[in-house]
Write a structure and sequence with these properties.
Blueprint (H helix, E strand, L loop, with lengths): L3 H9 L17 E2 L5 E5 L4 H6 L6 H12 L8 E4 L13 H18 L3 E5 L1 H7 L5 H4 L4 E4 L5 E7 L4 H4 L2 H11 L1 H16 L1
Parallel strand pairs: 2-3, 2-4, 4-6
Antiparallel strand pairs: 1-3, 5-6
Bound molecules: uracil and iron/sulfur cluster.
Length: about 200
């Protein structure tokens, strides 16, 4: 089993898919190793590629607001992406790129053991919860296969970047976010009951 630091160092030099060719920095993800919530985006954009950190551009500002709206700080959660290197011109990641990068995310989830995984956008949702439509699935928690065979709770949300292009999504994202604290409380109670 790797540590979060080892994953980070491996990502920094990874050449497992062609996205390495265009990157300035890979963006392994960051946050608390004891996070109860993981936010999983799609892939780094220009600012993230420049800084090597996830969600530090315009979409990141809105994600910070979302996190603060539920009484948390960025440092309390863990933020990662399904691909760790920036797709050229911010194109969608290809399935083979998501597949090549998957072991890093899988290992991050295995180490952090979040109570709740919040997928941001359809590419992230699609990797964890295949076959759903985001217009129907957003804002609804789903218990589904976890990384180690058990069940994991997922909560699909729209990608915060959509709110930058279309203001009406802003409200939807904040409404979906407003249900997270209660949901987390419920998951923690259920998980405690299962163990006792
Ligand atoms: N969009 C993403 O999906 N991830 C980032 O890290 C930044 C923007
Ligand atoms: Fe490696 Fe992932 Fe970057 Fe591809 S996107 S080069 S698999 S770290």
């Amino acid at each position: 089993m790797m540590t979060l630091n080892e994953i980070e160092n491996t990502c920094r030099n990874c050449k497992k898919c062609i996205l390495w060719e265009g990157r300035t920095n890979s963006v392994p993800g960051e946050g608390s190793p004891r996070a109860e919530i993981m936010f999983i985006g799609e892939g780094p954009g220009k600012d993230e590629d420049a800084q090597g950190k996830p969600f530090v551009g315009a979409a990141g500002k809105f994600l910070n607001q979302i996190i603060e709206s539920i009484g948390l700080k960025r440092e309390d959660v863990f933020i990662a992406n399904v691909v760790k290197c920036r797709p050229p011109n911010n194109r969608d990641p290809e399935p083979e790129e998501i597949q090549a990068c998957w072991p890093y995310l899988e290992e991050q989830v295995r180490i952090i053991k979040p109570q709740l995984i919040i997928t941001l956008g359809r590419h992230s949702m699609g990797r964890f919860l295949p076959g759903l439509k985001i217009s129907e699935a957003h804002g609804k928690p789903k218990r589904y296969k976890g990384i180690d065979g058990g069940k994991q709770v997922y909560y699909p949300m729209y990608h915060p970047a959509v709110a930058l292009y279309n203001g009406s999504y802003r409200k939807v994202l904040l409404e979906d976010a407003s249900r997270i604290p209660k949901l987390l409380k419920k998951i923690k109670e259920e998980n405690l009951n299962e163990r006792s």
